[in-house]
Specification:
This protein is mainly α. It is about 75% helix and about 0% strand. It has 9 helices and no strands. Helix 7 runs antiparallel to helix 9.
Length: about 170
């Protein structure tokens, strides 16, 4: 209910307006708050914390895919618009909201293993927490939702267990 001129005062392009509308339309904050609560309730075990995170966020996205698919589409469109504009400053395409939960998952590892290794684990967990995991399992691997949930839990458990085993092995061989 505003004029086009007014819209362009607040948004540089139609794509920027669409991006803002897409990110605002996805009500991820309640799921993030639930994840925070479940992660804290899981205690100090990183595996239990990761499972809580995956069940809260990953399962939520698998159960309600449409808004997250729209968000992924908007992010890709923004990325392509930046790629098509030579010399333009590249803005981050996504907000990085999964980082908050991942930081909570790996927090008990701080002080037990070197910071660089905690950071490496957190970066790797980005593969199993978020819209990308939903798309890979449902579209790439063609799993239905219950199968995708099982695979998401398996992947997250195995990723963290493998990382911790490898890092433990490196420390004990020094």
């Amino acid at each position: 209910m505003i004029s086009v001129a007014t819209a362009y005062r607040y948004f540089a392009s139609a794509e920027a307006l669409w991006w803002e509308a897409s990110t605002t339309a996805v009500a991820l904050e309640p799921a993030l708050a639930k994840a925070d609560t479940l992660i804290e309730a899981a205690g100090r075990d990183p595996q239990a914390r990761l499972e809580a995170c995956v069940r809260a966020l990953g399962f939520h996205m698998l159960d309600d895919q449409l808004p997250y698919r729209r968000l992924a589409k908007a992010a890709l469109e923004q990325w392509f618009s930046q790629a098509d504009a030579p010399g333009a400053e590249k803005a981050p395409v996504r907000e990085g909201r999964r980082g908050r939960c991942i930081a909570m998952v790996v927090e008990p590892l701080r002080g037990l293993i070197p910071k660089k290794d905690v950071d490496r684990i957190a970066h790797a967990l980005g593969v199993v927490v978020g819209t990308d995991a939903m798309l890979a399992l449902t579209d790439g691997v063609r799993l239905d939702v219950p199968e995708a949930k099982r695979a998401l839990l398996d992947a997250s458990r195995w990723l963290l267990a493998g990382a911790l085993a490898e890092l433990g092995h490196k420390r004990s061989s020094r």
